[in-house]
Amino acid sequence: MTVPPPLKPGDTVAVVAPAGPFDRLLVLRGMAWLRGRYRVRFRQDLFDRAGFLAGSDQRRRDELAWALTDPDISGVFAARGGHGCLRIVADIPWDTVQQRPPWFVGFSDNTAIHLELNQRGVVSVHGPHVGALGRQDDVTRASVVDTLERSMPAGYDVNGLRPGRATGALVGGNLAVLAACALAGRLRFSQPCVLLLEDVAEAPYRIDRALTALRLGGHLTNVVGIVLGDWTHCRGKYGRTALDVLREHASRLDVPAAHGLRVGHGAVNLPVQLGRTVTLDADAGRLRLQQS
Amino acid sequence: MTVPPPLKPGDTVAVVAPAGPFDRLLVLRGMAWLRGRYRVRFRQDLFDRAGFLAGSDQRRRDELAWALTDPDISGVFAARGGHGCLRIVADIPWDTVQQRPPWFVGFSDNTAIHLELNQRGVVSVHGPHVGALGRQDDVTRASVVDTLERSMPAGYDVNGLRPGRATGALVGGNLAVLAACALAGRLRFSQPCVLLLEDVAEAPYRIDRALTALRLGGHLTNVVGIVLGDWTHCRGKYGRTALDVLREHASRLDVPAAHGLRVGHGAVNLPVQLGRTVTLDADAGRLRLQQS
């Protein structure tokens, strides 16, 4: 396992946009907050737009490759999710990144980047985008600083959904993006995993479709536990909820499951270190970091 | 290629619900229309509901297996799409079906069933559900009868999207369902294909995500042409349209493409025989059936 060194005030960090275009005012505000603590670098073309993408594939790929490999940069913050990472992750020099990885912070579409890092043993931070940091939310901001400069909290309270206890690497993120990455052949976890899942605006039947396909395709064979973040705007019209669907799939996989981690597209999006070995104790309602 | 024998008035057909629950009144009306021409059979539990599914997996699987293998049944009509076929297709006795296949009629989620049939060389009908046949639409109804009792029309007018000409088996259907089937390991076209694609309520960035993942995963290597049906409620907020995205992917695959086939979730859903060898001539704006 490769854990980037703790960030320190004054370190250099980069803001990148590997996915969709973003609200400039919010991102500028988030960058202003980051500047209060770190030296912030970004490329002038960060603000490019090309339809639903933050500029061309080449622009976004060059920017991400630069930020992840420049030896002066200790942290890389994604401006926003949306869609676009899958279009460029095959062309990032991951072997170089792996030798001296900075912290990477993002979620949602950036799940595609976390997967690449975590599968290479690199720890990264599933957490708010720069745009979200632009909003007034001191608790989230303080949590981000804590996670990057000190460590992941020793544990999180969760609510049991299916009993049991399991230990593995905490991986995952956005379900729809995870499914797309698996379809693209970029999901290759070879070790026991505790799968973190969240999503937004997916009806329960779509969540079922993604999980059914992932399971039938053999992509979940190393999953030993499931821990759920927020399922924002995921109600359907047929009575069954996202949690009903997720409980059923935990049963099919015969693994413990818990929900209630305040992670994802909800009002609170706590930063969580992916790639760490964790123990999910669904009976005790606790997700514990295994101290290294 | 296995083409079920043409249906005749008086033949026995079955109505099944392998996916989601449906509007009973519409389906009863559709069944009443079918009864005007064929002997209609259905199981008493056709009307079961279990959340977003038309009854349990076992019920839907047993019903579909019965309808596809009963030697008295010459045509099988899906009541509705929605979601659910992928949960049961692995447990259908396809080898038995292949020996004496009936006509299968459906689309959308039933793309999962078409794929199983077409990959085994069986021709099927991408066409309206029984619920849609319950609406007053004599043109669609007459087209369905023509397709099942006579043959596929010699050709369809389409609009060129990317120039060129290609010949292959017409396969595909709903993009999101196709992607889920591929993720589940159930997409294995080994011959040149002209890919039919349509979808509903998918923003352009989602269409791009699915096509990007399918391409990166190597699932489109045998695609020699793309023909597009309707993209219903598929507008996004970033200016790029579904057709923009589809044109880009046709370019990446370096295949001819056309749009404007009146197939899918729009007002008109013409029946089209899948599994047939067709020539897409994007220059002439024509999709031609190769006469066998």
Task: Give a description of the structure.
Two copies of one chain form a homodimer. In chain A, 31% of the residues lie in helices and 24% in strands. The longest helix of chain A has 13 residues, at 57-69. In chain A, strand 13 and strand 14 (286-289) form a beta hairpin. The first copy, chain A, has two domains: 12-149, Rossmann fold (3-Layer(aba) Sandwich), CATH 3.40.50; 155-289, LD-carboxypeptidase A C-terminal domain-like (Glucose Oxidase, domain 1), CATH 3.50.30. Chain A contains nine helices and 14 strands. In chain A, the strands form two sheets. An eight-stranded mixed beta sheet of chain A has the order 6-14-13-8-9-10-11-7. A six-stranded mixed beta sheet of chain A has the order 2-1-3-4-5-12, sandwiched between helices. With 292 residues, chain A is of the alpha/beta class.
